[in-house]
Design brief:
This protein has ten helices and 13 strands. The protein has 353 residues and is α+β, with helices and mostly antiparallel strands. The chain binds iron/sulfur cluster (2 copies). The site of one iron/sulfur cluster has 14 residues, from helix 10.
Length: 353
């Protein structure tokens, strides 16, 4: 039994559905239609339902039952790690963290979105199955359905977002530190998740740490890598893309993201959207565009995000600036990610006016 979204007319409805076999074919039967998604979200009814169902679960969220990791256990493992990780420190004064508590979501390896990414981005792009087979050639045949991708969103802090929103041409120090040292937290988390799963007999790989992860200059969207953390997070129901290509999540788009592919079936997180731009007011309502004037490089317009112009600014001009200004050899910009309606939440329609 699982939850799904059904579109009818102008609205989307949350349903509980069960699979059953009829003359050898899998059929889906609607057990209940729980309500309209927009109304349920607005009234917090989904969270209430989750809390209510959790009371009957036999699997304590803090443990892997019978040695088999559950989604709740993995979510807690990730959140606990970020809360206690010695790497998660801004390094300026006191114990100021780089990231707040992460959001975690799951997608199945057979999710049709992954094949769609290959068709859309290019043949060099890897599905979870291709990644797993490359990482574990000795495992032999592995079906895509056997795999789960766990994705997480690491939200920047209010202090970082506030400092950065006050800048108009160059990154503030907290932002530069989040980009540089925060990615080290992200790498440590990737390794930690892989290790925790290995200890429980679950083979797992962090695609961006694998030796075969690479950037490509091929295809319509070049340069891009053969695995995108943001696209995995989109598949896991964690957010949709904005005009500037950033991922707008329930905690906004001033974030970093990560993922691990594992040979374990966990229930996928429902995607509360159908369109890849659903949360961006420019695409969904024809308003906003407030990230455009935030870009000091002229890389944003109503036509979208000019990646080459953005990279020239972030990887060249800002690398030189950050080395001189803060002594950090990194590249960063992200001015389009703060001081806008989608900085720290899914923007409300009136915020685009
Ligand atoms: S600032 Fe507005 S137009 Fe830009 S990504 Fe956010 S919602 Fe979309
Ligand atoms: S990251 Fe900087 S250069 Fe790139 S689009 Fe955003 S504001 Fe412009």
């Amino acid at each position: 039994m699982f939850a799904r979204i059904k579109k009818s007319g102008r609205h989307e409805y949350l349903q509980i559905v069960a699979n059953h076999k009829e003359r050898g074919k899998v059929r889906q039967q609607v057990i209940a239609t729980l309500g309209r998604m927009d109304e349920m979200r607005a009234k917090g009814r989904i969270e209430t339902l989750i809390r209510s169902l959790a009371r009957f679960s036999q699997a304590p969220p803090g443990e892997a039952q019978g040695g088999q990791p559950s989604a709740a256990w993995l979510r807690k493992t990730i959140q606990d790690y970020v809360a206690g990780a010695p790497e998660n420190r801004m390094g300026t004064q006191g114990a100021e963290p780089i990231f707040d508590s992460p959001l975690v979501g799951f997608s199945n390896g057979a999710d049709p979105l992954y094949d769609e990414y290959v068709r859309h981005i290019g043949a060099f792009y890897m599905t979870p199955r291709a990644i797993f087979r490359r990482a574990f050639p000795e495992a032999g045949e592995v079906e895509a359905e056997e795999l789960t991708v766990v994705s997480w969103i690491l939200p920047s802090t209010a202090a970082t977002r506030g400092d950065h929103a006050a800048e108009s041409r160059t990154p503030c120090e907290r932002w530069a530190r989040t980009r540089h040292f925060g990615e080290k937290v992200n790498d440590a988390l990737r390794r930690q998740v892989v290790q925790c799963l290995f200890e429980r007999g679950i083979p797992a790989v962090a695609p961006v740490l694998a030796p075969f992860w690479s950037r490509s200059d091929q295809g319509l969207w070049a340069p891009c890598s053969n695995w995108s953390e943001r696209h995995a997070a989109y598949a896991a129901g964690l957010g949709t893309f904005g005009l500037c290509d950033g991922l707008i999540t329930p905690v906004g788009k001033a974030i970093r993201s990560g993922s691990v592919v594992m040979r374990l079936r966990l229930p996928p997180t429902p995607r509360p959207y159908r369109d890849r731009h659903a949360y961006c007011l420019f695409f969904s309502r024809g308003t906003c565009g407030k990230c455009i004037p935030r870009c000091p490089a002229g890389a944003l317009s109503h036509a979208g995000h000019d990646k080459q112009r953005c990279l020239q600014y972030t990887e060249k001009a800002m690398n030189a600036y950050l080395k001189t200004r803060f002594g950090i050899d990194t590249y960063a910009c992200g001015l389009c990610q703060t001081g806008v309606p989608c900085t720290d939440h899914i923007p409300r329609p009136e915020e685009g006016e």
